[in-house]
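Interim report, section 4.2 (structural modelling).
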Amino acid sequence: MRTKSQRVFYLILGITALTIASAQVGAYYYLERSNSSTIPDSSILCNSLTSHAPGVNMIATNVLISYGNGTMQWYNETAVPSSWNAYALTMYLAKCNVQAKFYGPPLNEHFVTAINGVSNQGSFSWSIWMLCQHTNAWAYSQVGVDLISLASGQTLAWVYGASSSSNNPAPPIPNAKTVNSCS
Amino acid sequence: MIDIPNVKLMDAFVFIAAFLFGLRVGLGTAISIWAVYGFINPYGQDDLTLLLFLMGGECLYAVSGALLSRSSVARDLIATRKLAKRIDKQPIGNPAGPGRGILLRIKTRAGKLVNNAGSYGRMSLLFGLIGFQATFAYDVLTNFGSWVFKTSSLYQALIVGVITGVPFAILHEASNLVFFATVVPPAIAAAKRVGLHVQHRVT
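Predicted structure of the assembly:
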């Protein structure tokens, strides 16, 4: 009787282990497939950015690109569809001269590594900031570029500079007022 | 082993501590290990939230070790090992006469070896599978913990944590399957042989 119950115990253990192993292999396959995925291909996005469908609600945004060597480029009152996110806006302004690594599901995020030929190198990388309208201060974005929805009159800034895991990068304009978040 | 991420013997040590000395010692070992390793670590210091999840996860090995030591499966296996060891020490007689003595001795020794291998094999299978499943639970919990405040829902934290952490989880689970199957059975058998507390519960 005891031997029979022990056999059942071993059987349950074995089946559970096999289920876990299958689930882990499946999850690994899913991760690898999504990391090598080219679904949000930059060229496809670029083609869609050059033609706006009629009747789309448009908003005006302002973007600053600071190249870290003193060169700052403003794109003021750029009219773009309200459905775009900050990544699509960046692609549009840089005429698709943007390099990014795409992390597929579940993240679905672009990590921007180069804008207009200026690439991340060592501790120097691109970071995105938002100008808080109420406080007129810059806030370092706590979310990825794909999660930044655009609003009318919104001002964003791409900054190329040194950063580390413990410190935020420098604000877009030297000595400008900064806050932790816009809310 | 620090060069290979997530491959470590300490999970097996926590399990052995709980199996031999009970849940309290196991939990104490798990928590004190992370109280040190969480701060003094070449990969960097853990933040408090993650450290709590790591301690909680490590306690799962202690719980599984303590529960297994109370199960009839483990008790029977260890009792079988004890019996096999006792038989091993008995001298082999020679009832068939001097001519057939060597053959009989070889046959008896071979029989004992097969029996020993069988009981060790079952112990390895049992501890390996338990270790594998405890490691899976640990990985799910700690991967969830590392995303819980970075995502908008608990469900999202679970899914993102499990999927993004799966390469490390596979490495951890495979290595612990091997460690629990190879390191734990002889360690427990050796501890039992020197008369540790487990004997009181097993017999």
